[in-house]
Structures are given as C-alpha cells and as structure tokens.
Specification:
single chain, alpha/beta, 6-stranded mixed β-sheet, 6 helices, 6 strands, 23% strand
Amino acid sequence: MEIVDLISPEGVVPNLRATSKKQALQELARRAADLTGMQERAIFDVLLERERLGTTGVGNGIAIPHGKLPNLPRLHGLFARLEKPINFDSIDEQPVDLIFLLLAPESAGADHLKALARVSRLLRDKSTCEKLRGTDSAEGLYALLTESPASCAA
C-alpha cells in the first residue's frame, strides 16, 4: 500500500486555518465529506470518538486522526499543513502542524492498519517533514507525499 493509493491532489490542504483540535477536525471532516461523498457529521463523530480513546497526536508536530465508516467504499486520506501549530494533546505535548487524516471502510481490517503504518513511516522521516513544512503549494505537498519510497531511501 502506497500513499498515492490513499490520497488525491484534491486531498491536500496547504494552509489549513484552525485554532483548536476540534476546529481542525471539523474542517478536515468538511473537506473529507466533499472528497468521499459521506456525511460531514458522521466523519467528525468518528474522528471525535477515536480521539476520546486516546490522542492521535503522535509527536514531533504530527497527528494522524483516523476512523472507520460504514458504506465508505475504499480508504481515503487527506493531508493538511496547518497555518499555525495547534494544541492536539499530543503524546509529546508539542503543538501539531502536520495532519494526515485517514478514513477506512468498516470492513477494512488489516488494510486500515497497513495504511496507518505506511502514513506513520512516511511522517517519521524528519527530512520529509522538514520538506512538507517548507512547501506552500498543494501540488508540491502532494508530490512530496507520493514520492516512491525507493527514491527516498538513503
């Protein structure tokens, strides 16, 4: 599973404006609803429910909110670079400025976990994150996110 299988150029937000975790999740749910055809409220509720189990702020300024939705035909990703870092209750207590939202069908099972692992691997790379933070255009961000892993290997 590759990032290009999860995200489309329309799923990249170069300067998301949000002042709180809740506002960021609401804005991402709205944009995800446009991409998936699913109800915005259903997406937001799934994301909030997941956050109640424990934060998806994984540290180093990164959050990977995710959830499963009934009737979603396939995995969907959405990437946002925040205009200003926000408190996301991250495990390292650092503000978040890079968010990769992942939505999966209820039946996804292992595919959901594989996608989460792939996104996590990508965003654990400090060099990739520095490039993402230094890129202002959706096209540039999409290109960085979908580079083949082979071209990133040192």
